[in-house]
Automatic annotation (TrEMBL):
<comment type="similarity">
    <text>In the N-terminal section; belongs to the HFCD (homo-oligomeric flavin containing Cys decarboxylase) superfamily.</text>
</comment>
<comment type="function">
    <text>Catalyzes two steps in the biosynthesis of coenzyme A. In the first step cysteine is conjugated to 4'-phosphopantothenate to form 4-phosphopantothenoylcysteine, in the latter compound is decarboxylated to form 4'-phosphopantotheine.</text>
</comment>
<dbReference type="GO" id="GO:0071513">
    <property type="term" value="C:phosphopantothenoylcysteine decarboxylase complex"/>
</dbReference>
<feature type="binding site">
    <location>
        <begin position="130"/>
        <end position="133"/>
    </location>
    <ligand>
        <name>CTP</name>
    </ligand>
</feature>
<feature type="binding site">
    <location>
        <position position="112"/>
    </location>
    <ligand>
        <name>CTP</name>
    </ligand>
</feature>
<feature type="domain" description="DNA/pantothenate metabolism flavoprotein C-terminal">
    <location>
        <begin position="10"/>
        <end position="221"/>
    </location>
</feature>
<keyword id="KW-0436">Ligase</keyword>
<dbReference type="GO" id="GO:0004632">
    <property type="term" value="F:phosphopantothenate--cysteine ligase activity"/>
</dbReference>
<dbReference type="GO" id="GO:0046872">
    <property type="term" value="F:metal ion binding"/>
</dbReference>
<feature type="binding site">
    <location>
        <position position="168"/>
    </location>
    <ligand>
        <name>CTP</name>
    </ligand>
</feature>
<comment type="pathway">
    <text>Cofactor biosynthesis; coenzyme A biosynthesis; CoA from (R)-pantothenate: step 3/5.</text>
</comment>
<feature type="region of interest" description="Phosphopantothenate--cysteine ligase">
    <location>
        <begin position="15"/>
        <end position="228"/>
    </location>
</feature>
<keyword id="KW-0288">FMN</keyword>
<keyword id="KW-0479">Metal-binding</keyword>
<feature type="binding site">
    <location>
        <position position="102"/>
    </location>
    <ligand>
        <name>CTP</name>
    </ligand>
</feature>
<comment type="similarity">
    <text>In the C-terminal section; belongs to the PPC synthetase family.</text>
</comment>
<dbReference type="GO" id="GO:0010181">
    <property type="term" value="F:FMN binding"/>
</dbReference>
Amino acid sequence: AVVSLPARVLAGRHVVVTSGPTHEPIDPVRYIANRSSGAQGAAIAAALRDLGARVSFVTGPAEVPPPQGVEVIAVQTAREMREAVEAALPADAAVMAAAVADWHVANARPGKIKKDGSGKLPQLQFAENPDILAWISRLEHGRPALVVGFAAETDDVLDNAARKRKRKGCDWIVANDVNPETGIMGGTENAVTLISEEGAESWPRLTKDEVARRLAGRIAEALNGGEG
Ligand code: CTP
Ligand code: CA
């Protein structure tokens, strides 16, 4: 059979992809996390690999296994994820698809918190996590030429995502509507809008694999001097 292979337009390029949730411990047996299967991030890493890129795949504890043929760096927390991304640099592009927990538990306990029978409830104190996307977007030295973030929103999706692009300082934001009725969270499809300085481009509802292939293609164009 004749199989047409995608052109290796990203050969010699290095891309860092974050994916999955982060887990922020409360104690050794409990954590807080965002919902994320890791499916879209894994598909993006595979699509970039298929175009010939070397991919550093920094992933939290995701349901979907990481793709073959990428360098997998497994982390638990947002702080570990930021350090792993830093260690993976330099990179030509960064795609931050992880659903990073916004806070960690500042008073996490080394031992399991027990119900002591008095009915007294544990009091969790939260501290803000590093914003990996904002940090990498504003690096003075060694900023990847192209930084792509995601914005999963339930309200005013495009306005919020466009504001997020400016606030974080990234080049592109892939915006998606994660209202439960869209069925996107945990599903195989995604409906996204790519937001750049030039404006917003809505893509049809596609499989997550197809979204990943389109995005990888656009990243290749941008890195190879096409539309940025
Ligand atoms: N992100 C990140 N580090 C964080 C939080 C978010 O790198 N600590 C990245 C995500 O991977 C995503 C983008 O930032 O690419 C947007 O994440 P989102 O949670 O939508 O943005 P926030 O600024 O955390 O805003 P919100 O209050 O809507 O959660
Ligand atoms: Ca967030």
